Amino acid sequence: ATPASLPVKDCTSITPPYPRLLRTLDEVRNVLPKGTKLTLAEKILYAHLRNPEESLGGGGKVRGERYLKLRPDRVAMQDASAQMALLQFMTCRLPSCAVPASIHCDHLIQAQTGAESDLTRSIEANKEVFDFLQSAAAKYGIEFWKPGSGIIHQIVLENYAAPGLLMLGTDSHTPNAGGLGMLAIGVGGADAVDALTDTPWELKAPLVTGVKLTGQLQGWATPKDLILHLAGKLTVRGGTGRIIEYFGPGVPAQSCTGLATIANMGAEVGATTSTFPYSDNMRQYLHATGRGPVADAADEAAKQGYLSADEGAEYDEVIEINLSELEPHLNGPFTPDLATPLSSFSSFLNENKYPTTLSSALIGSCTNSSYEDMSRVASIAEQAKAAGLKSKVPFLVTPGSELIRATTERDGLQGTLESVGATVLANACGPCIGQWKRDEKKGEDNAILTSFNRNFKARNDGNLKTMNFLASPEIVTAMAFSGDLNFNPVTDSIPTPNGPFKFTPPSGDRLPPTGYTPGDLSYAPSPSPAPEPDTNIAISPSSTRLEILEPFGSNFPSGGGELPKMTCLMRVKGKCTTDHISAAGAWLKYKGHLSNISENTLMTAVNDEGGQINVARDADGSEDTIPKTMQKYQARSEPWMLVVDENYGEGSAREHAALQPRFYGCAMIVARSFARIHETNLKKQGILPLWFVNKSDYSKISAHDKVTTIGLEQVMNSTSTLPIVKLRVEKPSGEVEEIETRHTLSVDQIEWLRAGSALNWIGEQARK
Ligand code: F3S
């Protein structure tokens, strides 16, 4: 039976547009070869195509080959990445967003002493960012979830996720929403802006990995253990360019929130996203969270075959997992794919001479803080308490949302955890994203256990030597009572004055038996707020963290023609990822301030002429850092270009990597090859990317050569359909050489360059 639910919400803006999606899917079936069987992932993606004929027509393989132009239904943004996404959105001066969107204040809350004090302190420290986000949300009609409301992915699951929906989120664990049978994809801010401005969002059709689940979870094994085990099989790269689609008799038995945990950590194997066929457990979760109308609409869509794969659909690869044989796992240290079954964990630690004393235990986060998780964890704590035990180490609990916090508090679960020594932190990311002020163990080797999703070095407490082992919240909690990582809660006992104590396997409720309670409603926005165009955007001119983004001017002469003559600033050697172009770490605080963050541009890049890192030379021979040299060019208004190596801009969709060179005046980048997403981002920001036709021509352009394009004018006027643009390279000696390059500009992208940026063009179109 469905437990008592929250009051039924107005679901108008959160119910997927099923009739439209089903109509598009019908069109798709007419375009694809007759009788094509579709996976669920394909159904959801193709139902969101803007033009099925354009993306799928003409025959040939689609998955892994074709680019899909999509129309996402919704956007969610967290407080760190929302800043630049909104600043960019503002440059096109549209009055409101094209799709419903939400902002979630979660990453900037630092865990230190406990929920209330941490929240007050973090709000004070980040006030200008929160004020800016709130003012932008009001102006453009975006739902704004205040600090303390919870973690983006938990709130999305509780409020916005729906079977068959396509959502973009500016955070890598956005796929968490796949727990409700949808496709939720983590992207950079520039992609989010595509959706917000109704620009076609492009995605290379992913391959589809099918994971067939059979059997039933036993004893201590949980959905978390399934994904920890799968991460070990697939490794951190095994899901790249793929959607993981689960199917088989083991799927319907899993709770909706358990599926969300699995989908969340699909990000750890690099998957585009993960999804599951619609199930009764999803229906119950929708009802329990006040979204009965969404469940009713999904039931109808399911009857028409939308929310599961076609019988006989083929996957690019199939992995079968028998849940009955699954053991609890602990993954790490330092990488989420180093999976060790619980039964061999002690020997794994000892063989590698890793610490065996636990220094802290942390549960919750966006990955594992459902009611089910907390209720099962409380069942372990109850047993320990009855045996007179308390947690041996600091035991921190991060509720995923105010809904979870309030409900677990009302039902006594939180009290049980506190009675054995737990500290409940704010409803925010906290220790999961390094927002954990932990003074003990600084610089020392030590081991922590968390129920989070990532365990790269320094991710939690900034200490490179902290080894984070990922496990289910149940295993983390049980081990906290022993304090010894050799302890296996399934088989071992803990000595007590009354004799040895052994845990029985955890148990709990999937949904609160008396329904959820919303808690403090003041954190939540009013649903579907109307835009308030008169709202002033709150950015202080003296801010060091936020800066209004001025639209870039076009690099092209107003009457048309070639790009003005450019100076080659440097030739970048070898691997140059988006991290090399715009470093993260301490620079993240400047994400909303382009002038300040630009001071890190290419600061770890190698200069091919001389081999030094972060060194460039000006025309007079003076050496300086790369960003300082760029600033000199900018100050002289001297157009410049870069020569770069293979796969330039690989790594992520970080839009800062394109924005920053553009900010300093870069007009063109010529590469041996580009990473595709970054190449598109360059075009979006108005920088022309060109590919050497002969890769050996890379070394024919040197710093301070003057470079002019030949034939670009015809490309821009669409009078040439040839992809070739020649470069005339003039050496300081007066020697001249011509080099062939090719462009990959589409008709739309030519307009972006002409307007100065994609957003300028979108703004121009909207004002016409
Ligand atoms: Fe936040 Fe960690 Fe999740 S940073 S969004 S709790 S992965």
UniProtKB/TrEMBL annotation:
PROSITE patterns, sorted: ACONITASE_2
Cofactor(s) for this UniProt protein: [4Fe-4S] cluster
Cited InterPro entries: Acnase/IPM_dHydase_lsu_aba_1/3 (IPR015931), Acoase/IPM_deHydtase_lsu_aba (IPR001030), Aconitase/3IPM_dehydase_swvl (IPR015928), Aconitase/IPM_isomerase (IPR050926), Aconitase_4Fe-4S_BS (IPR018136), Aconitase_4Fe-4S_dom (IPR036008), Aconitase_dom2 (IPR015932), Aconitase_mito-like (IPR006248)
Residues covered by the Aconitase A/isopropylmalate dehydratase small subunit swivel domain: 567-693
Gene3D superfamilies: Aconitase, Domain 2, Aconitase, domain 3, Aconitase, domain 4
Keywords, comma-separated and alphabetical: Iron, Iron-sulfur, Lyase, Metal-binding, Mitochondrion, Transit peptide
Annotated GO CC locations: cytosol; mitochondrion
Lyase found in the keyword field: yes
Record carries keyword Flavoprotein: no
Binding note for cofactor: Binds 1 [4Fe-4S] cluster per subunit.
Domain Aconitase/3-isopropylmalate dehydratase large subunit alpha/beta/alpha: 42-483
Subcellular location(s) per record: Mitochondrion
Disordered, as annotated region: 496-532
Molecular function in Gene Ontology: 4 iron, 4 sulfur cluster binding; aconitate hydratase activity; metal ion binding
Family under the similarity heading: Belongs to the aconitase/IPM isomerase family.
Protein name in UniProt: Aconitate hydratase, mitochondrial
Originating species: Kwoniella heveanensis BCC8398
